[in-house]
Design a protein that fits this description.
about 10% helix; Pectate Lyase C-like; little secondary structure; Pentapeptide repeat-containing protein; Pentapeptide-BTB/POZ_domain; 2 helices
Length: about 150
Amino acid sequence: MAHQDHLYILKKGTTYWNQWRQANPHIKPDLSQADLRGADLKQINFSQVNLRFANLISATLNNAILKGANLSLASLHSASLQMADLSGADLSAADLRETDLRQANLSFANLTAADLTRADIRDANVTNANFDGTILENVRRHKGLRNFFRRDD
């Protein structure tokens, strides 16, 4: 369950949140199960944040920093994560259907059993990402990634 103090800080806005994160680098915020659907979280620093089971449906996270974040079982359906840094993030079993991940950094991310149906990963960095058991139906991707996936959807 999300830590209420962390939710309170987040509700003060991205600038306040990012300043708080910079002043408190030792704190690993817990926003697990938080309802953030439709939230405007552009350029937010969510690195190392626990967002397990979070509802981020239709949220805007463009240019967000999510390095090492726990997004396992999170709902990111129709979210926008353009140019977001998800390197090393845990996205296992996350709902990423119709998510915009163009130019996102997914290097070393764990996408085991995630659902990327109709997601857009054009120009995304997927170096060393784990796609074991990932649903990749109708994924939009750069032609250079055609051979990266085991099957050609």
